[in-house]
Write a structure and sequence with these properties.
The complex is a heterodimer of chains A (243) and B (442).
Chain A: E1 4-15, E2 18-29, E3 33-38, H1 44-51, E4 59-64, E5 67-68, H2 74-77, E6 82-85, H3 97-107, H4 112-125, H5 127-131, H6 142-154, E7 160-164, H7 172-189, E8 192-197, H8 200-206, E9 209-214, E10 217-223, H9 224-229, H10 231-238
Parallel strand pairs in A: 3-8, 3-9, 6-7, 7-8
Antiparallel strand pairs in A: 1-2, 1-4, 4-5, 9-10
Chain B: H1 17-38, E1 41-45, E2 51-55, H2 57-80, H3 93-120, H4 125-150, H5 159-176, H6 180-199, H7 207-227, H8 229-232, E3 238-239, H9 258-262, H10 269-294, H11 297-307, H12 309-314, H13 319-345, E4 347-348, H14 355-368, H15 373-389, H16 397-411
Helix pairs in contact in B: 1-2, 4-10, 4-13, 4-14, 4-15, 5-6, 5-7, 5-13, 6-13, 10-11, 10-13, 11-13, 14-15
Classes of the chains: A alpha/beta (243), B mainly alpha (442).
Chain lengths: 243, 442
């Protein structure tokens, strides 16, 4: 946990006239899990997408591994070993599980041996995917689709994994499995993770550090444990309605 | 099959005589409303241009009665055939498994038969000509399949590339005297170039919007061909396009012809047979290239693009080049087919490249099952062959044709061959039936 892998400086981004990010600063160190929490419309997904240049930052900088990637074309960013599991999973429904995973490997510059090794790793994390390997993506359950989306992202052998709401619409037990897999990836494979979640409790327990985004601005940041103790976090995201 | 369930006549609601009669009565009422002006009143311009009209209540009454009776019959059929409906549920599993085995050998059997067609029907010029026509549409269907079936880009102007190919060969050969075998790749390259040219402005469009722009593009090409008289000959077209040669050896009765060289008597059928095998080779080339491409990253990227563009971007796929290569590849095959069309006809004019052709090729792709090579071939055979089959019925031909299409779309909403064979495997190949996936999920 030393050098900064991703540094976002004063990032602004907008959809037409509506400014979704109003000067965000965020840092992810190598080997960290960072959680980004916030209410609906706070700009969490926008921040994640703008790392990939969609929407393109209107001002500010995104520095990845020492290189400014603010203006790098979207398809080239994925080749810099940043992978993304987009919101709503977005697997390819008519293509088989094997093809979905292969799509993740296609863009990266991986050798055949590396690809086979990564595939084994994905199957070790999510044995369900191996059972369903020839099944169409669209016939999988929600949890399996989320596993596939993460597995597909892992196939490019990323250094930084961006996860957008991995627990969305999943049963608590399945969500726990997904979070466990993320923890395993971080501890055993040294993968750096940025996770966007509405499920603040889960995300902050998993993360080393967290950021709270409100209306396009970071209002709080700190270690996961610290944030979990903050009364305003508890009120807004954990015990909402009871206060 | 789930989409074809009649929602009202099964399940909790009991179906009685009253219900059937009520439904039939309502149908008849709608028919009366629709036809009272269309059929009930006949208008015509009189001798001095004045409006003449007379009523045809007898015809109207019989039509409404027909709708009434028809509605009752449909409801009774639904009642008797059980609530599950659809063709699949009538067929016992044993027959279905037999059909799937037959399906596995269908493609090779069809291919062998196609190779033998010129041998079997050597003396039947009509059948050979029909075969060439069907194969031309098979090739066009396979070409469009790359754009529509694989990449999911709805292209209503495919005929533009067919026209570019045809005019490329027609003009290059008549103006510069280039041979067919030199012009064929040139026609493909030019068509691909126009494919890219169409691709650029429509990169950000999808679905309906893309369809409209491609439709306009097809019309623009046709209008340019009509109006650019100096180059294209306008509505008169290009005539005297050279016939193809067997790598330089002409298929003519003269001294240097193929027949004379082989020492066999000349027959005009030789050329027809040659054309048949030429288009067969071109079509098979299209098929082979498509199948190969599907197993490469670019082919997978096309299919992924059809499924989800946002996910493609997140995976680092360059959307621009992926779309443009799909347009270019599809257009190239259209161009090859166009060059063949020009050499077969010897004469081309803008009339051959109307929107109707685009619609026909698109219908072949959709009817065949988007993305399925075998399905497209079967659909081309059914559509073009079926068209000829009902030629004797003259006026009813289009009616039968439309009805057949509606029925196929009800029974097989994913097309004749709805299966999609995966291209990446861990161990062994397995194709997944379309029935396992909900309708509308790709």
């Amino acid at each position: 946990m030393s050098a900064s892998l991703l540094a976002i400086r004063n990032l602004r981004a907008s959809y037409g006239k509506i400014e979704a990010l109003k000067g965000v600063d965020l840092e992810i160190k190598s080997g960290e899990i960072v959680a980004l929490i916030g209410a609906n419309g706070a700009g969490k997904s926008t921040l994640m997408m703008s790392i990939f240049g969609r929407p393109r930052a209107s001002s500010g900088h995104i520095v990845y591994d020492g290189h400014d990637i603010t203006q790098v074309p979207t398809h080239q960013i994925a080749r810099l070993k940043i992978a993304q599991s987009p919101e709503g999973r977005r697997i390819f429904p008519r293509m088989s599980v094997a093809e979905n995973l292969q799509m993740g490997a296609d863009a990266g510059d991986t050798t055949e041996a590396e690809r086979a090794g990564t595939l084994e790793r994905v199957f070790a994390l999510f044995p369900r995917l191996k059972e369903r390997i020839d099944q169409r993506g669209g016939t999988l359950s929600g949890g399996e689709q989320q596993m596939l989306a993460i597995g597909r992202a892992l196939m490019s052998r990323p250094r930084l994994l961006l996860l957008d709401e991995p627990s969305l619409g999943l049963a608590p037990l399945i969500a726990r499995q997904i979070f466990d897999a993320i923890r395993t990836l971080n501890r055993q494979d040294g993968l750096t993770v940025l996770i966007v979640e509405q499920n603040a409790n889960h995300a902050l327990k998993l993360a080393h550090r967290g950021y709270v985004l409100v209306n396009g601005l970071v209002t709080l940041s700190g270690t996961g444990a610290e944030l979990l103790q903050r009364p305003e976090i508890r009120a807004a995201y954990l015990e909402g309605g009871r206060h | 099959m789930s989409a074809s369930h009649p929602a009202s006549s099964n399940g909790s609601e009991p179906v009685g005589a009253a219900f059937i009669l009520k439904k039939a009565f309502l149908s008849a009422l709608v028919a009366l409303g629709l036809f009272s002006l269309m059929i009930g009143v006949r208008t015509e311009a009189g001798q001095s241009g004045q409006l003449e009209y007379w009523t045809r209540f007898g015809d109207l009454a019989s039509l409404v009665a027909a709708v009434f009776v028809g509605s009752i019959i449909v409801e009774l059929l639904r009642l008797w055939l059980g609530p599950r409906g659809g063709l699949g549920s009538f067929v016992p599993p044993s027959v279905q498994s037999g059909l799937s085995i037959a399906g596995r050998y269908l493609a090779p059997a069809l291919l062998i038969f196609t190779f033998l067609v010129p041998v079997i029907f050597y003396n039947q010029r009509y059948i050979l000509d029909l075969g060439i026509l069907v194969l031309t549409y098979v090739m066009l269907g396979w070409g469009l399949n790359v754009v529509v079936g694989l990449a999911g880009l709805l292209d209503l102007g495919y005929v533009a590339f067919y026209a570019v190919g045809a005019y490329s060969y027609g003009l290059l050969s008549t103006t510069f005297g280039l041979s067919f075998w030199i012009c064929l790749p040139l026609a493909g390259i030019l068509a691909a170039f126009w494919g890219v040219l169409l691709g650029f402005p429509v990169l950000r469009l999808r679905g309906d919007y893309l369809a409209i722009v491609t439709l306009a593009f097809g019309e623009i090409i046709r209008l340019v061909l009509i109006n650019w008289q100096d180059v294209t000959g306008g509505p008169n077209g290009v005539s005297g396009i050279p016939r193809p040669t067997l790598f330089g050896i002409p298929l003519t009765p003269g001294e240097g012809g193929l027949a004379a060289m082989l020492g066999i008597p000349f027959s005009p059928t030789h050329r027809i047979v040659f054309l048949f095998y030429l288009i067969l080779a071109l079509a098979l080339l299209t098929n082979w290239v498509t199948i190969r491409l599907r197993r490469l990253p670019i082919g997978r990227a096309w299919e992924a693009l059809r499924e989800d563009e946002v996910a493609c971007r997140a995976l680092g796929i360059n959307i621009t080049t992926t779309k443009l290569t799909a347009f270019a590849t599809g257009a190239m095959f259209g161009g090859f087919a166009g060059a063949f069309f020009a050499t077969r006809q010897g004469f081309i004019s803008p009339e051959s490249f109307t929107f109707q052709e685009s619609a026909l090729v698109l219908a072949i792709v959709v009817l065949g099952g988007m993305g399925s090579q075998l399905g497209v071939a079967l659909a081309a055979l059914a559509m073009i062959g079926g068209f000829e089959l009902f030629r004797s019925l003259e006026v009813y031909r289009m009616l039968v044709f439309g009805l057949a299409m509606v029925l196929i779309m009800i029974w097989r909403p994913r097309g004749i061959v709805g299966h999609r064979a995966p291209t990446v495997f861990l161990e062994k190949s397995k194709s997944i039936s379309s029935d396992l996936v909900k309708e509308g999920h790709g």
